[in-house]
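Next up, a chain.

===
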Amino acid sequence: MRFFDRTEEIASLREIRELARHNAQFTVVTGRRRIGKTSLVWKAYSDEPILYFFVTRKAEGELCEDYRQEIERKLGIPVMGKAVRFAEIFEYLMKLSAERPMTLFIDEFQEFFRVNKSVYGDMQRIWDLYSPQSRINLVVCGSIYSMMTKIFKDKKEPLYNRQARFMTVRPFAPGALKDILSEYNPGYAAEDLLALYAFTGGVAKYVQLLVDAGALTKAKMLDHIVKADSIFLGEGKAILVEEFGKDYGRYFSILSAIARGKTSRSEIENAVGKEIGGYLTKLEKEYEVIAKKQPLFERSATKSVRYAIEDNFFTFWFRFIHKYGYMLEIENYESVKTIINRDYETFSGLMLERWFRRVLIETHQYTRIGSWWDRKGENEIDIVAENELSGEAAFFEVKRKAENIDIDVLEKKAAAFLRATGEFKDYAISYKGLSMNDMLMKN
């Protein structure tokens, strides 16, 4: 699959490189694994050689030898002597960049913590000492979001706020997914587009795996995901165990409950069988795997709270792959696919709401977008969108099938919203239905 999207990110990275020709720049690029961080940086700087240091778990001296060879290969400069500490190489490059501007890209930067955690303190000292004269474009990239956040946003850490920019790479937006399917499967159906979004969440590597395999319809995607030796089957565990560490079992139980529709704290605790307040906070604030949702304009911070897994792939993985892992262990792939197909309408209905919320965000037509439900659970509105500049508000009902949308019911729910919140007085109000048919329309 060719490179898609990321126009703004590439422009930003190139702008940073130009700034670095006069003053040292320090940029952090982060995001969940498989999102395409490394590919993004390579694409942005494909027009000139860059130094690429990949941090892997081996002795610091071995890494330094790899980096020495990279410097000689890319810069054509023999590096005298044998470096055994990364600090020596970093200091050498900071000094050299005062005369010769360069881009240094350090990938899997968080792994220095396991190689030699003193690297971060050394880098702080060297950066503070030489950056006023340096012309280095330093880009560091990391996949374990919690560790990268700690390194740069924890006041106790030596590199706290040393970066000029903290760039988080997000999944492909709906528009990019449409472009991808349009190129590789021009006759795609709405069901195929929704499946691509529901199964991958727009994560670049997952999309690429499906495209490269020619799995461009819902049925073919499912066949490729649920089969022997599929990377998708172990993916959730491979990524999240490293994030969560030894407590991953408790976190997995919580995420499994949320994926099954247990969205309030009490429902999750009943499913898990234990008090989980501290775990929920970490999942939301530290790991950013879940989000706390409240009805639009809810004034109490503790009322009507629902929790959701933000990542579509993790939602799918916990809902089907993790839950039915015992079937996969005995290679009963057909039964798992049968279950996914059986429950797909409900699961994809949630994904469809997310799709249209993202589409509305992409349009930049609204200043506030959210959902609303009353405390009794009698009225719920899928999407409420406000433009406070123009004095307009729109209520949306989202259904897979257009014939299941009832605008009269939506208007009654909106009336309940207006009474309960007191918002949108003197606004121009509209009521709209969105179905899979609308996915194929130009935004």
